[in-house]
Amino acid sequence: MTTTSITVTETPRIRRLLTLADDALILGHRISEWTGHAPLLEEELALANIALDLIGQARALFTEAGNESGHTEDQLAFLRDPHQFRNALIIELPNGDFAYTIVRLLLVSAASDLFWQATLASSDPALAAIAAKAGKETAYHLRHAAEWLIRIGDGTDESHRRAQAALDSLWPYTGELFETGAEREAWNAVVTPVLHQATLQRPGDGWMQAGGRSGRHTEHLGHLLAEMQVLPRTYPGAIW
Amino acid sequence: MMPLWEVFIRSRNGLAHKHVGSVHAADATMALQAARDVYTRRGEGLSIWVVPSAAITASDPADRDALFEPTGSKIYRHPTFYQVPDEVGHM
Question: Would you report the helix, strand and coil content of chain A in percent, each value rounded to 5?
Fold first, then answer.
């Protein structure tokens, strides 16, 4: 890789925008990895649609952050190193199986949905405008994940086992979702009835993973960024 | 394999739902979502119907001549023998 990394001087507003943008970009990238591998054609398109929604949200947020920091959206996405990324750890974990992908999408989009609903009334007009579009998209992501999880959890012994395993393994990563504005109590009110309907056992709120918001990531983010950033870093300014 | 559903989409208010294709899904709720994800990606629709494909009764292709051929010679059924008065304008 060439040494073209940028450093962003983060005002509180830039940091807030980058945190939201990184969540959207990295989750969008992870979900896009299902393209060509989804369990059925209909779900292939559904996941690709969700990935594109998230990457679109990331673009709007990066553009807004870049207006203040003096960077383009591409520079912010492709020329920052892993420790500058502000996404939650739950976002960057590898997709696992389909149950794991759906459980993560439910846990994350339940928080995002609450956040965007609250942000419609934000005193930051640019952010409120992004919320108007992103809120509708995220409401659908939440619905899609919830309907799937109900069927996977309350499906066969094998699908139930996989959904419960995914839930148990992802739960300690949910703490960071509430560092951006969503309230855990409101989130519980969305997530708990879905888990109940899916006949899944809600894990206890014990020790929580943290670090993503301050740039301390798992090794998975570096691998993801290497793949995502290699082209613009190797061929600066390349266009289609 | 999951059951098959026929998808009908209404593109604008005042138009009829039109058959656009089919999706596989476990039940009606998932079929609606699949139809939304597969067939409305480019702003095609305002409303979606999904119908179990098994609920459709189709005519037998072997009956084609008996069912459809006889209308071929009855051109007087087409409304082409009227002069539309100019005052009516575009119909």
Answer: 70, 0, 30
Determine the Cα angle at A61 with ends A59 and A67, to 5°.
100
Cβ <8 Å between A45 and B38 = yes
How many beta carbons lie within 10 A of that of residue A176, not counting itself?
21
User: Does residue A147 belong to the interface with chain B, where contact is any CB pair within 8 Å?
Assistant: yes
In a domain, B87, yes or no: no
Interface pTM (ipTM) of the complex? 0.86
Are B30 and A147 in contact (CB < 8 Å)? yes
Contacts of B29 in chain A (CB under 8 A): 147
Task: State which residues of chain A have pLDDT below 50.
Answer: 1
Strand partners, B7: B21, B50
Say whether A45 and B2 touch across the interface (CB within 8 A): no
Non-local CB neighbours of A35 within 8 Å, separated by 6+ positions: A44, A47, A48, A51
A45 touches chain B (CB under 8 A): yes
Measured between CB atoms, does B37 come within 8 Å of chain A?
A: yes
CB pairs under 8 A between A and B: 29
Question: Would residue B86 count as lying in a domain?
Answer: no
3-state secondary structure (DSSP) of residue B87: helix
User: What is each CA distance from A227 to A231, B16, B75, in whole angstroms?
Assistant: 8, 47, 66
Would you say residue A2 lies in a domain?
no
Q: Is position B84 within any domain?
A: no
* Structural domain contains residue A152: yes
CA distances to A101, A127, B75 from A131, in Å: 24, 6, 58
Per-residue pLDDT tens digits of chain B, which is 91 residues long: 799 999 999 998 889 999 999 999 999 999 999 999 999 999 888 999 999 999 999 999 999 999 999 988 888 888 887 788 888 877 6
* B52 domain residue, yes or no: yes
